Hints:
The chain is mainly α. Helices cover 74% and strands 0% of the residues.
Amino acid sequence: FNNFPAWATSFWALGVWGAFAGSILLLLRRRIAFHAFAVSIIGLIGSRFYQRSVDIPDSLQTTGAAIFLAAIWVVALFLLYYSRRMTNAGILR
């Protein structure tokens, strides 16, 4: 992680802090939660792009790591979908 270039670290930060902000905004029932989750998805895409472009040792490419990555994608996309649905339903103001 310490060897990531600045742009990859920036995407990682967008993903983490976007998801954090979106979760807090969702709890506060704010419409802007959708936008925070969208920023999180952009961060996830950029971060994943970097991870795919570097050589990762075989010892780190395990089935558990793949399942964990899939879980991150599923949760992130669900939160984006859920926040959009709640906004359209008028629950988020």
